[in-house]
Amino acid sequence: MSTSVLQDLFSGSLAGGAGCILGHPLDTIKVRMQANPAQFPTLAQSITRTLAHEGVKGLFKGLAPPLGSIAIYQAVCFASFSPALSLLTPFAASKATSNHLFLAGCASGLATVLVTTPTDLLKIKLQTKTAATHHQSSIKQMLLSIIKNEGLTGLYKGASATAIRDTWSTGLYFVVYHTLCRRGKEEKYNGDLVELVAGGVAGMTAWGLCLPADVVKTRLQADNSLKPTWLGTLSQILNNEGSGALFAGAAPLLSRAFFVNAVTFWTYEKVNKVINNNG
């Protein structure tokens, strides 16, 4: 493995870890609003009820699975995006068009489903276990229970829903980020500001547009009583609650998307600069 690959993996893992920790409280609120809108109907009520019954630690439920898989996620993301972009632009990756970036991003989003699906499944199940839940499970207990009852394939419940959410949205994410960075450099804006804004806007755009798909995925992975297919879960939500339910958790999702992605991209660029300056 080359030094540049190791550097990207290290920088990406550090940046991803920072974003994961800082954004997890809003992610927990988002998941609860999507999975149980009757109990958590608004952002304010969701936060106050979680704090009242579980304290601050309740906001960090389910953090271990995504945080523990950051390095693997970054490795898969890098190992899929860079080769895909090189394949699409064999002579000059720096001249990649928006179409090239979108397709390479889609390839990356699809590849990371292998990591995201099981980690999101465990994360969501832990996040939706509130103080009122009769049986509290540890990650180990939950993992063993899924494997025992459903086999290893049980860890990939919601894989199709994850792919539907992540494939095109990751492509869009890369297009928006690189386009804004390019324009910012052309206009000679402050580099730090460009990276923060580009990362935040890219995150909000991608996550905002895939919100309905995210709601379906959350419901599918959180509730064993729902039909085990994306279309089955979607039709059940529409029939029972109407189309408005597909936009549950919009406030925490969009807030988290801007904040986390701004911090993640900024941290990634800064860590790379520090390494390069001291290399």
UniProtKB/TrEMBL annotation:
Key words of the record: Membrane, Mitochondrion, Repeat, Transmembrane, Transmembrane helix, Transport
UniProt organism field: Triparma strigata
Record PANTHER family: MITOCHONDRIAL BASIC AMINO ACIDS TRANSPORTER-RELATED, SLC (SOLUTE CARRIER) HOMOLOG
GO terms, molecular function: transmembrane transporter activity
Gene3D superfamilies linked: Mitochondrial carrier domain (1.50.40.10)
Topology in membrane: Multi-pass membrane protein
Compartmental location: Mitochondrion membrane
Source organism superkingdom: Eukaryota
Solcar repeats: 3-87, 96-183, 190-274
Protein name according to UniProt: Mitochondrial carrier protein
Cellular component annotations (GO), alphabetically ordered: mitochondrial membrane
Family of the protein in this entry: Belongs to the mitochondrial carrier (TC 2.A.29) family.
